[in-house]
Structure formats: C-alpha cells, structure tokens
C-alpha cells in the first residue's frame, strides 16, 4: 500500500540526473549474425506498446537495421491492423506443419518483417513434442536474419504473456504518467524481478503532456522500486514520448506516425531511444538468440 501511495503521490521527485547527453558517443553496433531480442510490455493495456514497437521498428529499419516484430498479442488491435497488412497465413499454420516461418513473414513499412503469431498462440499453449520441434526448427531458421526481434505482447500477466517476457533477454516496459498505469507498471516490475529474475527493466514513458512529466514518472517509479524491491532490480529510463492528438488519425489511416511526420519532435525523441537500442553495452545481441528465445519460451509455456 505504501508503494502504491508513493507511486501515485503528486510530489515531483526530481531524482534523476541530467538527461544523458552521451548517446552520440555510444558505439553503433553491427551485430552480424547476432540478434537482439526485446519484449515490449506494460502493466495496463492501451498505453502504446504496439505504436511504440511499430514506430521504433520503422526508425531502426531506416537506420539500416534488419528488424522483425513478432506479434504476440491475442487481442484485436494488432500490429498487422496498425499497418494495414492482411496476413494470409499465421503461426497457427506453421505449427500445423502447413508452411514455413518464412512463408508467413509479412513485409511492413521500411522493410521491417512482421510475424503474425497471435493466432498461433492458443496452439502454442498446448503444443505436443511434434509441434515443439516444428517451432524450434522454424525459429532457428530466423537466427542471424535480423538485428532486432521485437515481441509485442498483450497486457496482463497471463502465463503466456509472462512466458514471452521471461524468454526475452531484454524487456522494455511502457507506461503513461497516469497513476493507474504506473501502479500496474510497478506490479509488472515486481513480478519480473521476483518470479523471473530480471535485473534491469528498460522504461519508456509514453503520452507525456509536459516536458518534465516523463522524468518525474520515471523518477517516481525508480524510487519506489529501489525502496521496496532493493538493489536487485534497476529501472533504466530509455526516454519519454509526448502525447500526440493526431496519432489516432495516423492509426486510422494505417500509417506510421514517424513515417508520416519524420521531422516532428516525436520522431526525434524516438530516434534517441533507437540510438540507445543500438548500443550493444545496453542491448547485447546473442548468437543463436532466436532459437534460445524459442527454447525458453517453450519452457515458460509449460510444455514438456
Ligand atoms: N504518444 C501517444 N499520444 C497519443 N496517443 C497515443 C500515443 N501512443 C499511443 N496512442 C494511442 O493509444 C491507443 C493505444 O495504443 P496501442 O499502441 O494500441 O497500445 P497497447 O498496444 O499498449 O494496447 C491507440 O489509440 C494509440 O493511437
Ligand atoms: Mg498492443
């Protein structure tokens, strides 16, 4: 309860240091055959995970990175809808042995790849040995194909969602400054640390309405995490993104906001986050990262 009060208190807590100016000095890395696997999560739904994932994937693709987004949300507001793509086949077909992983990959804006996995998720929860082997082999075929694999997850803490998060070496948590979103974000951090041993969670504060609101929100969350969860878990604030009333318009037009408005501040701020994502000291790529992820995912789903 005390944690909750601290999270929703209105007292500005300027505990973060000055904005890190050093990104321009950071090393840009070319991972070769290594893939950075990152899952995107939140506590509360509707905070902007899918928009963040798709716009980030686009900017990274513009920077010359090969990016793949695995859509792991069973809900309706999926990345394919956001981008106006119509998958003909999905992971469900792969699991039934009807086609290969490369057959289902869709090409999105900027050349990003999208794996429409959500309709295979129900099958994934009950996979037998045969299907596990298919999935493992098919995932392994993607190894080294991409610099980044983003997993766009559903909200909530179902076993499936947690299996995706547990299997991802890196997790980005999205919240808005709203107290309900922040308390749910905290609950997610607590769970990821206590049950899944995560030590660092990367944070993006979305829909910020004032310049300092992002840092205040990140500061508050970090402070409460430090106070109640101790030194075993760290919140790394990657950046904040402003509330844009016209994002809804570009969503309706099924166009990415940063593609439509590449010169707006929103795109500039998201690019700063992309530079951090390409910093291999923060986001190291792993050789065989995709198959390792698939193996861990199957363990998490509780399949033998
Ligand atoms: N920075 C933002 N400013 C304004 N609206 C946003 C912003 N980011 C996302 N949205 C809107 O919030 C809603 C939820 O976004 P979405 O990415 O689908 O969230 P999630 O994937 O977390 O459920 C969408 O209508 C989207 O247009
Ligand atoms: Mg979503």
Provide an overview of this structure.
The termini are far apart. By secondary structure, this protein is an alpha/beta fold. The model is unreliable at 11-32 (pLDDT under 50). 45% of the residues are buried. It is globular and about 50 Å long. The protein has 14 helices and nine strands. It has helices spanning 2-8, 49-62, 79-82, 91-95, 101-104, 121-125, 129-140, 159-167, 179-194, 213-229, 247-252, 257-260, 265-277, 289-300, and strands at residues 34-41, 67-72, 106-107, 113-116, 148-153, 170-175, 200-208, 234-242, 286-287. The chain has a domain at 33-174 and 247-293: Rossmann fold (3-Layer(aba) Sandwich). Strands 1, 2, 3, 4, 5, 6, 7, 8 and 9 form a nine-stranded mixed β-sheet that branches. Adenosine-5'-diphosphate (ADP) binds next to helix 2, strand 7 and helix 11.
Q: What's the structural blueprint in terms of helices and strands?
A:
Layout (H helix, E strand, L loop, with lengths): L1 H7 L25 E8 L7 H14 L4 E6 L6 H4 L8 H5 L5 H4 L1 E2 L5 E4 L4 H5 L3 H12 L7 E6 L5 H9 L2 E6 L3 H16 L5 E9 L4 H17 L4 E9 L4 H6 L4 H4 L4 H13 L8 E2 L1 H12 L4
Parallel strand pairs: 1-5, 1-6, 2-4, 2-5, 6-7, 7-8
Antiparallel strand pairs: 1-9, 3-4
The chain binds adenosine-5'-diphosphate and magnesium ion.
